Amino acid sequence: MKKYKYIFLLIGLSIVGCSDLEEEPIGLLAPEGFFQSTGDIQTAVNGAYGHMLHRNFMSREMSMSLMLRSDMVNLNKNVTNAERVQFNDIKLLADNANIAVYCPKCYQIIGAANQAIAGSELVSADVAVKNKIIAQAYFARAFVYYHLVRQFGDIPYLDKPVTDIQAASTMSKTPAAQVYLNIIEDLKFAKEWLPNTQTTRAIPAKSAASGYLAEVYLTIGEFQKSYDEAKDIISKESTYNLGLEADFQNLFDATKSAASKEPLFLLDFNGQSDGDQARNYQAAFTGIRNDAQYGYGGGWSVEVPALAVYTTWDSRDYRKAFSLDATAVFKGVTVDYTQFTNTSIGGYAAGDNSPHIAKFTRKAGPAAEGNGRTTKSDYIMMRYAEVLLIAAEALNEITPGTTEADGYINRVRARARNTAGVATTFPANVTTGLSKDAFRTLVLEERRLELAFEFKRWYDIARRKLGTTVFSASGLEGAKANFDPARDYLFPLPSNELVRNPNLLPQNPGY
Predict the structure, then answer these.
(1) Mean pLDDT of the chain
(2) What integer is the mean pLDDT of 426-441?
(3) Which of 108, 254, 361, 476 has the CA that lies 20 to 30 A from 270?
(4) From which domain of life does this come (predicted)?
């Protein structure tokens, strides 16, 4: 497991957020004094990846927003925090507290990547040697901008270190289409220079850059390019040391996931915590309150799957059994989910009467802090099963009804039939010859189940404009009357940023 050495911009000026958010630097050291060797470039790169483990990024605030905005995860009815209620009920306000903290964290990651790229110009070394290092920075920058552009649309785009705070505080937004082009260029550079494999999947290799290229192309409707990129990865499965994990549950087993061939890129929480830096919150937010079965006092029952997620998921699918916990242990007694709210320990009810998410709790290992906040879970940001599904979805848009596209889904389903080493017959292979529309529906449903609770579902809803269907009365969470397709596929830009910098106006439509 890789533990990054963090630098929270020791270099140059303070970090700039969405416009002019400033953070007091730990120390001041001019880039000319810091960047002396390729090792210094790597240290700056590590700073970017270190920021990804902070609670304000995927560990807590952003992941919570993505989970609650989907059609699979509800907010526990007893939770009243406004920023969470707004995401869950699709009633976002521009001063939402989650957005207010993770937006600047995104730009801290981008800022560190920009410092590494610019700082490399100050180091006398072979260009190829430097490019292999800064390719990691290009990937980090693309990875974060890809999250931001899907959430907010037009956004400020910074590709150089901020040396003029006044100029940065008056910058305008970059159109989303251009942001996507910039992301693609960064990923192409990363793919060219990254090695075929790395010592850990927490450091991107060629496959990670290529995988995100395939997904970006899919998101913007460039289906031929998406398919070509995904197909290229599949053809290099051995070269990139990729494959499907034989047993689905091993992907979420902290003792086994690091050795798996399936992840292309992951965030590695190693069980250590420095306050909110590197602390893993998913076990706490998704775990069953007061549940004793995993040894860390249970979670907080905040992000709770809609009951229909459980009841509509065929119980013959092994992925269901591992993705969800339908029982808990209270005071030594095993209790069914239908009795969770009737079970009180210390005055606190266990949680909603619904199975809870198990991917971040069941095999996350011991935790030094209560509620699992220092478990060693890996947050898999992309894995090989998704590459196969991207290839299937993109190919269907180009040439519907191919056995090749069927085969990619069949491979994912074949793994789902391996129930802890016991072969089963469900889920069955795809029915051949489906129409384009029928296959599209099928592959999106396969993504929903295969990638359940892995922070993907909201992005699928947004890119395929599924909101009017999934948030209707027939949806998993029932009708969400507040959903407005003219407004709600984007989040509002942070109101404090618009006050500080009117050049970022107009606000996203409807907010």
Answers:
(1) 90
(2) 97
(3) 108
(4) Bacteria
- Range 184-187, long-range pairs (CB < 8 A, 24+ positions): 184/213, 184/216, 184/217, 186/138, 186/139, 186/141, 186/142, 186/145, 187/138, 187/139, 187/142, 187/212, 187/213, 187/216
Q: Where are the alpha helices (DSSP H) in 203-296?
A: 206-219, 223-235, 282-286
Kindly report the CATH number assigned to the domain that includes residue 454.
1.25.40.900
Span 211-221, pLDDT tens digits: 999 999 999 99
The domain in which residue 348 lies consists of 282-375
The answer to whether residue 68 is domain-embedded is: yes
Locate 437 and state its tokens: 């529309």
Residues 316 and 461 both lie in one domain: no
- At residue 399, does pLDDT exceed 90? yes
Which pLDDT belongs to residue 274? 67
Percent of the chain with pLDDT over 70: 92
Whether residue 343 is found in the same domain as residue 433: no
Residues 73 and 141 in one domain: yes
One-letter amino acid at 225 equals: K
Give the integer Cα–Cα distance in Å for 499 and 501: 6
- Reported as a single tens digit per residue, the pLDDT across 292-321 is 999 888 899 999 999 999 999 999 999 999
Burial class from Cβ neighbours inside 10 Å (0-12, 13-18, 19+) for residue 50 reads: buried
Look up residue 480 and give its two tokens.
């969400």
